[in-house]
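Appendix B. Raw example, untouched.
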Amino acid sequence: MYLPDFIYHKPQNLQEACSLLEKSENGAAIAGGTDVLVEMKKELRNNNELISLSGISELKIINEDDKNLYIGAAVTHNEIIESSLIKKSFSVLSETAKEIGSDQIRNTGTIGGNLCTGASCCDMAPVLIAGNANLEVVSVRSKRNISIKDFFLNHKKTSLEKGEILSRIIIPKVKAGSGISFLKFGLREAASISVASSAVMIRIDGNVVADSMVVVGAVAPTPVVSKSASDILNGEKIDEIETNLMLLDKVGEAVKKDSLPIDDIRGSAYFRRNLVKTLSQRTLIEAINRAKKSLKK
């Protein structure tokens, strides 16, 4: 199995990359290439031009201001794991990056590439949705911000338009009283693709859930935000959630009903529904623990 012939471009800045992508009839932007090149080998895509983003320094910047954390789209998974700034401001993302692929994949694969593949099993998506992130997208003509909730349209399909490149991820800083956690289940310990995943955000006020978001991945064509689960959680007492098994079961059942899994080589729809129920319950308890700890700092 060999790569087909293609024209390779290596622009030095974002504007040049956008221009090349805009003019190309069948081109694709790549960063690490860990998905695009594999799909080309398997003849799942037929791009005849590749525009590399690996030489564009502005896509590799991690910085912050008083309100947000900013991560360039070409930042690799291992750079996310090692970043002291990300560990301080949004540590759950570093934890999630550790769960992606092998060390070789994490050295080259990027956060932007993980999102732009649009795969239903994308691990970064549930965490970033739970964190209420926005995506900055640029083209020759304009720059726009997209809520990550609106980015995924279907499996392998995103809201990126022709000539647009994801430039950075904008994550609001987690405030005291809030906690976010993530869990995934794969069929092996290392380099596993998610059979199901869950991210939960909880914001507490005293002993009450002031706000929540439960997001599950790999159980529908796009990440699923379980509004039914949040309707149960919001306004509920924290100690009731932690001690009332019937209430916890009710939350898990709500997530289970909101998911739309399929049967595939990694698991049946039945297995995934039950799996995502358990994962969401565990991430909920961990998110509550993190929210409590944040108030003690």
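End of appendix B.
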